[in-house]
Amino acid sequence: MHELIRDKEHLFRLALLFVVGIVLFLVVRGLFVPEGFGEIGHYRVGALEDNRDHPLTFAGRAVCADCHGDVVEAKSGGKHAGIGCEACHGPQAAHARSDDPSSAKPEKPDPVNLCLVCHRNNVAKPAGFPRIDPNKHNAGASCHDCHAPHNPGLG
Amino acid sequence: MEVDRREFLVRGGKYLMLFGGASAAWEFVLAGTPEKAPDYDAKRHWWAFFIDIEKCIGCGNCVRACKAENGVLQEPFYFRTWVERYHIPPRDPANPEREEHPVVDSPNGGYDGFPERYPEGDGSKNFFVPKMCNHCHNSPCVQVCPVGATFDSPDGVVLVDKSYCLGCRYCVQACPYGCRYIDPRSNTVDKCTLCYHRITKGLTTACCESCPTGARLLGDLRDPADPIHELLRKHKVQVLKPNLATGAKNYYAGLDGSVR
Ligand code: SF4
Ligand code: SF4
């Protein structure tokens, strides 16, 4: 008993050291952990918004259909009916949101090269996918001479 | 009063012509600025991906669309999605015990398509495999991040907090699918976000939007009406490297055993 009281001073210093350590840890943690961290998981909740905060480049086919219903009509029932407009015409969000869409018009795709992106021969393409050898299949002709791009069947 | 009525008719007409999410998307496209879709509740979605190997023609539309939409660097080693070509030579009947190993190539990630390289009818097996982040539910990348900058969102998308990433490259090494790279512009990690800015506004990803064959499909597993359920039921599906138990959510139909 007597011993313990004599050592009281040491215990007190040790406890003080612990308290200072813990306070220091909390202060540093408060400074370094960003706002919203850990609210719904081990991450900063604002990062979700950061990831949503990105401009659109592709408008999406539904937006195209709003003005170009005639093309949707022309495509329907054909082999290309399921293909999004921007698959061939490129990203068009800038065109769609423009005050004067005719000034931000997409470039007309080069018919032969565009068709060959998909339809050029390649053994790795799935069986049954229509593909051609451009040197043998009416070489030199434009695909559009026989095939309408929005509904390419020969009728 | 007059203006209100006019406004009402214009808006009503537009909403009638478009359907559901698309009308909301139209507003975002018009505004040009990515606003928050007020009614998006992350907890009500669980995004997954369906990839049909039997449909992919290796056109590279998805690779180009992804780079355009997400501002991915053009150099041939920065990809959020890429396409691989597998070539499996026929077995030699004289040495049937020798297994042929696949030859895999991905010129510029498939960005420019695939120039023909193999002859027709030599007995080999050839096919394309589109690849991207699998948005693993038990993702190694999330587990190794020392600061919580890579995380699993409530709707099942693995995202990066760019303002918090240290650029330590742990996750780049941890991802068994090679889906991550360091973006030299910010010195932080970059990867597929599953077009989080699009899917939270009712749009599909840029790669799905521009895939001509429907080889890729974004699906919401929490939506019972989503066509992905039907696809998963009708096809034999597999994920990549199932032995690693990463909880990968890209379901491949027609996946060959040789694909790694
Ligand atoms: S595929 Fe790689 S980057 Fe994507 S969630 Fe899985 S481990 Fe992470
Ligand atoms: S766009 Fe579709 S068909 Fe073309 S390479 Fe990509 S997944 Fe394959």
Q: Rg of chain B, please? A: 21 Å
Task: Name every ligand kind in the structure.
Answer: iron/sulfur cluster
In terms of structural class, how would the helical and strand content of chain A be classed?
A: mainly alpha
From the alpha-carbon coordinates, what is the Rg of chain A to the nearest angstrom? 33 Å
What does the main sheet of chain B amount to? 4 strands, mixed
Elements of chain A, N to C (H/E): HHHHHHHH
What does the secondary structure layout of this molecule look like, with pairings?
The complex is a heterodimer of chains A (155) and B (260).
Chain A: H1 2-6, H2 8-32, H3 46-52, H4 61-67, H5 69-75, H6 85-89, H7 93-97, H8 111-119
Chain B: H1 2-17, H2 20-31, E1 47-52, H3 61-70, E2 81-88, E3 103-105, E4 125-132, H4 140-144, E5 150-152, E6 158-160, H5 170-174, E7 181-183, E8 188-190, H6 196-199, H7 206-210, E9 216-220, H8 227-234, E10 237-238, E11 250-253
Parallel strand pairs in B: 1-11
Antiparallel strand pairs in B: 1-9, 2-3, 2-4, 5-6, 7-8, 10-11
The complex binds iron/sulfur cluster (SF4) (2 copies).
List keywords for this structure.
heterodimer, A: about 160 residues, mainly alpha, 8 helices, B: about 260 residues, alpha+beta, 4-stranded mixed sheet, 3-stranded antiparallel sheet, 11 strands, about 25% helix, about 20% strand, binds iron/sulfur cluster
